[in-house]
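2024-03-11 09:14:02 DEBUG pipeline.ingest accepted 1 chain
2024-03-11 09:14:02 DEBUG pipeline.ingest length=242
2024-03-11 09:14:03 DEBUG pipeline.predict start
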Amino acid sequence: MNIRSTKIVAALVAMALCTPNIAFAQETSNLTTISGSTDVNGDFSLTRSISAINRNDSTPPDSKTIYVNPGDTIHVQLDLKGKKANRTHGFTSFKEVVSPIQAFSASSGSLKYKKTSDPTLFAKQLDDIAPDTFKQTGDQTIEFKGNSPLGFGVTGNHVTIDYSYTAGNELGEYTTQFLPASEIDKERFNANDLSTLDLKVVIEEPKEPSLGKILGWLGGVLGILAVVGGGLWHLLRNLIRI
């Protein structure tokens, strides 16, 4: 490769590296997570969290409320973790009451766990956890069913369930909950106060972009055009010389 060819490649690389992704950066900055925790049987803690992009930059009234727009992806995590390394527990059958669901797929979720005697992190897709099941059962419900003799799913020192769904078009405020499937499941799981896991999802209409955001976006676009234009000029100049 001669010097002029090297200059052309360098110009192309510079253009690729210097072009920022404005939309991605803005979405990342608006990513919000809310959570609640409770003690489970004295040896474990369960943390339930919800993450989504707050596109409207809405200000929540408290730390357990999150704002989304229709069609947004909502991520939910249930994290059951032992307080000591030699303790074992697991989820019994439960129901997740969530905001209206537009779309859900168990294949996009995961079950991860660690045993007390093995530091290896095992992982499965939620559509591949037989004999247990994890599926949508209603417009606002997703259920896990443990099919062991005692009604538990996978047990371990650390068990995490992650899933996501697309928010529906029904605007409003929704209280989401983690609920054992039955009184027996509740007793066997033995959580102290499940109400601390209640989290609110507010579905609101997308806002029109403010003048400040429009000007900021235009400034970013102009910056990209300046970088790309300079790179193209440098590229053309080197091509002419060849």
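2024-03-11 09:14:41 DEBUG pipeline.report Residues 31-206 form a domain with the Immunoglobulin-like fold (CATH 2.60.40).
2024-03-11 09:14:41 DEBUG pipeline.predict end
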